[in-house]
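Re: duplicated header lines in exported structure tokens

Our pipeline writes sequence and tokens for each protein into one text file. With two proteins the header for the second block appears twice in some exports. Here is an export where it did not happen, for reference. First protein block:
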Amino acid sequence: MKMWISELARVMFVITEDWALITHRLHLVKNAISDGHQIAVVARQSCYRDELQALGVHFYDWTLFRGSLNIFRELRSAWQLKSYIEKFNPELIHAVALKPVIYSGLISKIFKNVQLVAALGGIGFVFTSHKLKARILRGPIRLTLKFILKNPKSNLILQNKDNIKTFEDLGIVESDKTILVKGSGVEIKKFYPSPLPKGIPLVILPARLLRDKGVYEFVEVASRIKSRGFKCRFILVGDVDTDNPESIVIEQIKKWVKLKVVEHWGRIDSMVNVYKQATVVCLPSYAEGLPKALLEAASCGRPLVSFDVPGCREIVKHDFNGKLVQLHDINELENSVTELLLDPKKCQIMGQNGRKLVEAEFSDTLVNSKIFDVWKEMLQSDD
């Protein structure tokens, strides 16, 4: 299906890591290229440069460090981005995550003919954490975002209504500058339903191993359920993230594994095969934009368990396709996981309901179409 933006539009994605583009937005990039548009990607290179260039993407390696506050390193990253924008000369920049949004937003003010889409998956550590570092950064970042989004050539994409309300209440953005796009899109042909597995049930947590993803709560539930003699396996699927202040140290993960409370499979590229093995997918995160892991699991026909928080409640509908649990309520979390493990029929029905929900609201086709509509409107307004 053709989704024309404008003739030969030049669009630059600015994102922290190349793998983040691969896992979340590769289908969007492919769709745009197939429509005839020129695409550039600015990201820190890991191992996907060749794959992206083979598609026709102009790739620029960006020495950005997400967790850095070193002023000299940050100035270098900003100058590097400026040089890439000058070289590619985009009509529109689609910046994803906080640092790329800030740098793209400030630099794009220099270029009169560049439109900016600021896309935030969630409101992030700075606006959700009570730690001193977050409290110190919150004020300056709020003012910077407000300055960037006052630009008539910029718009903000957020993934749930709670986050939109938070940003509007903080005075960061006016309501006419925010656009709701539900997630980054699930490739429903790739993430397809499969029968629930036989044998010992698996409960998986698919996420980076961060405190605010609910890893400690997940491990506690695993310990409790196993201590009652229940035969099941609890799996952490994901890696530590040393650039994130909420990251759990690998030594702690190894300790849990040694005690046989959980297993750690690390980061796995083919998550479809992981969901096929799962009975229940549990993500007790403290806040999300719209968690891709839960969307993909639902698309694969798996029942979900999460805390009742922004982002998660968008995809988890209580007693329809999963269980919503009050934030930090370990007892309720344990009871919800146990209930599903004891009732395979309920898991099957909830999995079927989740698949229907993803098809109706969260597919890659729907999300890409909405994003292309945003691009088209902004580019036409610049004519």
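Second protein block, exported in the same file:
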Amino acid sequence: MTPDAKSCFVRATAGRAAIVCRRLALLLSAAWIMHAQASDANEGSAPAFCPVAGDTNVTALLQPIRQKFKVPAMAAAVLTSEGLKFMGAVGVRKRNTEIPVTLADLWHLGSDSKIMTSTLVARLVERGPLRWDTTLAEVFPEFAAQMHPDFRPVTLLELLSHHAGLPANLDLAEYSGDNARQLRLRAVQLELAKKPVTKPGTTYAYSNLGYLIAAAMVEKTTDKSWENLMTDEVFQPLRMASAGFGGTGTPGLIDQPWPHTADGIPVSQNGPRTDNPPVMGPAGRIHCTLPDWARFIQDQLRGARGQPALLSPSSYQRLQTPLFGGDYALGWIVVSRSWGGGKVFNHAGDNTMNFANVWVAPNQDFAILVCVNQSGSQSFAATDEAVGALVSLVKKK
């Protein structure tokens, strides 16, 4: 799937970006989400009612992009190492309603959660309970005998950089339930007994499973859940008060952006359970407001620029540097762009109902965040074009 990307900076890699975005999408179990009927949505057209909020320069750019790609709503922000500079939101929380999105709304980040999981690991590595080269066999000696021999020496670095030889996903129907920590431990026991997809340490293969197994290593080492650790070690220090896990909104109420499938149809329900199952949290179940996401990305930007931040400079270098060739670091795709003055970081997230896209340009001291409450290629193309427009706005300002 290759969307017709025409922004001023992604044209050369549109195909690759589309492939990455689909790899980032977590696979939903049918038992978790039931789609609404197509007759319930005005498929093929953007909602006519388009309220706006925030900086008029941003909303003026987003309005025609939203209309062009027929998405219910879009929100975007621009920040520097000093903090959030301007943001805006356009559109409605749910197609066929006139309930506007707001600047205080929660947006689902999908696989943009991965860099947050890697940041948590870096916090623990700095304090000593873990090392980047800690192996699966070290942390789980009780399962080592039944692990496939190739998995025993796999390290945290290999898991977080998608070089562990694991498949992309679990069979989610076999891992439903609310005890995420126990289910992640079950995945360690059962999935690592299987033959690797590729030889660990040799090949890039995007794997959501790798991130939840890395989180299981963290949970075993600390005797705390990934969810509690994320809150204590990342969200609270960065003052991300809105950050949470799972789908957004009160079930049945349109009090947050409502999730939509790739064809623009509102899903049949909303709320915390309208997401991939909790076991997949470390790979992509975080939501927050744009200002709070900006706090996290500001910290990554400051770290990349050698400024005081949550982690040590060496930890940011580790998070933001591909280690096994290619362009994937530990939750960031690292490429070069002229508009960014060289090295830039990117990631996208799609839980099949929402889409998020982030670009960070350390050499130019800015980052751009864009969210859409709809999945799929149209949403990728919309966020891609919005980033291009916002890059031009940043250059003008």
